[in-house]
Amino acid sequence: MSLASVHHRVRRLPSLRFSYRPCTSTKHTKWSLLPTPTSTIRRWSSTSDPSKPYYITTPIFYPNAKPHIGHLYTLVLGDVLARYRRLVEPQREVKFLVGTDEHGLKIQQAAAKSGKTREDGAVDVQGFCDELSEVFKNLSKSANISYTTFARTTQDRHLVAVEHVWRTLNEKGFIYKGEYEGWYSVTDECFYTTPQVTETADGTHISKETGSTVEWSKEYNYMFRLSAFRDALVHHYSSNKDVTAVFPSQYNSVVLGMLSPASTDEPGLVDISISRPRSRLTWGITVPEDPEHTVYVWFDALLIYLSGVGYPWSGAGAQAGWPADMQIIGKDILRFHAIYLPAILLALSGPKYSELVATPPSKVLEAASIGLPKRLLTHAHWTVSQAKMSKSVGNVVDPIHSMETYGVDIVRYYLARVGGRFRDDVDWSFEQLENHSKQLQSLLGNYLLRVASARITASAAVGRDQLQDGGEAFLHSLNEELFQAATKLPGKVQSSMEALEVADALVEVLDVLKLANKAVTDIAPWSKACDPRVVYETRQTALLTLRVAGVCLKPFVPETSERLLEALGLSEAEKTWESVLALDGSERTKEREVKAVRLF
C-alpha cells in the first residue's frame, strides 16, 4: 500500500498601477504616477487564521522498492506549493509533511525476500524499513524538497496516535467485530466490493480503480461503520460547486460517484474492515486489547497526517496546523483520502454512533471538532510511451539519474510544467525534457548573459549619462510593453497558483520571458547604431524583468532563482514577493552591480 501517488479565499488589496500621458515630444511616452482605479495589481492573502500554520501533505510512500519518477513528481508538487505559500505569506509558518508507510504484507514479504536478518536469524523487517526509508529521505534531499516533517508509521508517536484513535472510535460505537468477505488485493492492500472488480479475458479478477489483481477472501475482522457517514460526505462534496473540495473538479465528481451507486443493484457506501488476523499479517500495529489482530494498513497510514502534527493534541489542533490546508494525492488513492479519512475524522470528533442517525448531515460536519482537510489536489499519473511504469516492463524512470543528468531544477521545472495541470495522465519523455531544458536555458539563462554583457553594460553607462529626464520616459515602445508585462506578472502568477493551475503559472512567466527576448533581439542594443539611451533603457527594463521572473520562479527552481537574484545584486528585501508586487517606474533607474553568470 502506498499513500503515494486549501483552497484559500482571497481578498484583493488595491495597488498603484501607472497610467501614462503623452509628452510634448512624439518620440517617447512619459509615465506619471496616476493611480488608475479600474486596473490594480491583485494581492492575495488567506482569509483563514494566519496564526494557524499552513499545513500541506504528500502521500507517504511505501518503501518496498526504490523510488521512481512518480514519487519525485508528488514531492515536487508539494514543495512548489509549500515554497509558494512561504513566499506570499512570509509571516505564516508552513508545515510540510512527507514520509514513508512501513507496515503491511508487502513490506513483510519484501523484507523476507531481501534476506536481511537480525542476530537471532529472524527477518529484520525494521532494519529493511530503515534502509529504504532513508532512500526516500535522500530523494527528498536531492530534489531540494523543503519538508518540515519526515514521518514514518513505525515511529512511536504514530503508534500512540493510532491507538488513541482506535480506542476513541471503539468507545463511541464505530467499531464492531464481524465477518468480512470480499475481493482482496495484496498489491493495494485493501478489499474491494464486487462492483469495484471486473474479470479479464483470461479469467483474472482485477480492481477497476487500480488494475491490481484481486482474490476472494473471507475473514473475521474488526469493522468500521463507514456507511454511517455517507450522507454527511455527500453534503460535504456537494456544498460548494464553485470551489470543490477535490481539485480538479472532475475528481470531486468521481468521489460523489463513489458515494452514490450507479444503480439500485449496487450497494451504497459499506462498512470496511480495519483489521487483519495476526496469523496473516504480523508486521503492523497490534489492535489495542486484542493481540490476535493487526490494524489494517490503510487505517494506520491515513492517521499519519494527524500524528505528523502531534496528535493527540493537548490543545487546539489549529495550533499544530490541523486541518490540513492542502493534501496532494494520486488519483488511484482518492477513495482512501476523500472517503475513508474524512469518515474517520467525523467519527473521531463528532456525535457518537447512537446519536448519529438523528443528526442531519450538515450538523454532523459542524459538530466535528477535528476539521476535515480543506482541499485535495488529485493528480493523474506519469506514463512512459503511454504505458504505465512497470519494473517488469523495464520502463521505470529513475529520478536520481534524471536529476544527475539534467540538473535538479531542470527536472523540477519539467515535472511542474508538463505535469502541472493534473487532469490527464502525462507521458515522460527524455526528448521532451531536453526540449524544455533548452527553452528555459535560452529564455532565462542566455537572456541574462545577453543583457549583462560587457558591451551592453558599457554602452548603457554612456546612455545613462546622456539622459536628461532621469530615465522616466520610455524611448522605445517594446521596452514600455515589456515593463507593463513584467509588473503585471506577479499578479498573474498568484492568480494561477491560488487556482492550483501550476503549469499556467509557469506559462505566464515564460510568456514574459519570450517577450523580453523578442524585445532585446528587435532593439539590438549591442549594435553600434543603437542610441546609447535606448541601450540603457533596454538593459534596465531587462534587469527589472529578470528580477520579477526570478522571484516568481522561486517555488519551482529555487537554486536557479537564487543564483539569478544574486547575480542581479539584489538585497534580501528586494527578493521578496511584496517587493515585486510594489514595483514602480522608479525601479528602472536604480543602479546595481550585475554579474553575467551562467544559471545552468
TrEMBL record:
Provide the GO biological process annotations: methionyl-tRNA aminoacylation
Q: Name one GO cellular component term.
A: mitochondrion
Instruction: Provide the coiled-coil residue spans.
Output: none
> What organism does the UniProt record list as the source?
Ephemerocybe angulata
Q: Gene3D superfamilies, from UniProt?
A: 2.170.220.10, HUPs, Isoleucyl-tRNA Synthetase, Domain 1
Name one matching Pfam family.
Answer: Anticodon_3
What the entry lists under PANTHER family is as follows: METHIONINE--TRNA LIGASE, MITOCHONDRIAL, METHIONYL-TRNA SYNTHETASE
Could you tell me where this protein is found in the cell?
Cytoplasm
Ranges of residues in domain Methionyl/Leucyl tRNA synthetase? 54-451
Q: Which reaction does it catalyse?
A: tRNA(Met) + L-methionine + ATP = L-methionyl-tRNA(Met) + AMP + diphosphate
Top-level taxon of the source organism: Eukaryota
Q: What is this protein called?
A: Probable methionine--tRNA ligase, mitochondrial
Q: Does the keyword Transmembrane apply?
A: no
Q: Which family does it belong to?
A: Belongs to the class-I aminoacyl-tRNA synthetase family.
Q: Which GO terms describe its molecular function?
A: ATP binding; methionine-tRNA ligase activity
Known EC number: 6.1.1.10
Q: Alphabetically list the UniProt keywords.
A: Aminoacyl-tRNA synthetase, ATP-binding, Ligase, Nucleotide-binding, Protein biosynthesis
Every copy of the Methionyl-tRNA synthetase anticodon-binding domain together lies at: 480-578
> Membrane-spanning residues where?
none
